[in-house]
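Table S2 (text version). Query chain:
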Amino acid sequence: MTLATCDGKRNAIRAESIIAHPPMARSLSEHDRHRRWIARELHDDVCQRLSILALKIGQARGDSGDKRLLEIQQYCAKLACDVQALSNGLHSSTLEHLGIKAGLDRLCRDFAAHHDVKVSFYPENIPRAVHKDLELGLYRIAQEALQNAGKHSRSEDFSVTLRGSDEELQLEIRDWGVGFNPNDATRDGLGLISMRERALLMSGFFSMESKENWGTKITACVPMRRGRRDCLRPVGVSSDGSEAD
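Corresponding C-alpha cell output:
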C-alpha cells in the first residue's frame, strides 16, 4: 500500500468521523453566526454613527473653511468606509441575497481593489439554485485562499474559477507566486485546516498543489446533493492518488 493510499484512507476515515461526530460542524456554524452578528452590528450601528458624526462635523464647519474640521470630517468618512469593508468581509450581503456567483464576483473585485492586484473570476455553468450551506462554505474557502495568497504568494495575478454541473461544484483558486512545499503547509497559520474541514463537511474534497516559482492552486469540489463522497483526498495529493506536481 502506497503512502498516498494510506493518507487517502486516513482522510476518508477522518471525514466519516466528522460526519458521525458534528462538533466541528457546530463550531464552524457558530463561527459563521458570530460573524453575521458582528457584521450587522458594524453596519447598522458603528457605520451609521460614523456617518452621522461626519455629517455633524460638516455642519459645524459650515462655510468657515476650517481645514482641521475638514480633515476630521474626511477621516470619519474614510473610517466609515473601512468599517463597511470590514463588515462585508465578515458577512457578504451580496452572497446572502444574490447567490454564490455574485458573491464571488464581489469578493474578487473587493480583494483586487484593496490589494491593488488583478483577480480574474471565471464562472462556468453555475446552477441557478445552490444550497445556502454550499454557497457559504465555498465562499469561505475562496475568501481564506485569497487572503492566504495575498499574504504569502507575492503574486499580483490571481484567478478564481467556479465550475458547475448537475452533480457538483468545483472551486479553484490560483496564484502565480513564489509557491511553497505542501509538506510544510499544514500549520494553522495558512488556514488550510479550516478550508479542508469546510470541504469535508460539505461531503466534498479539498486539494492543494504548490511548487516553488510555480505558484499555488487550491481546489474544492462538493456535490450538489448531500451525501458522503468517496473522492476525498488529502492536501498535496492529486485525484489519481499520486503526489501533486
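Notes on Table S2: The chain has seven helices and five strands. The two ends are 21 Å apart (CA to CA).
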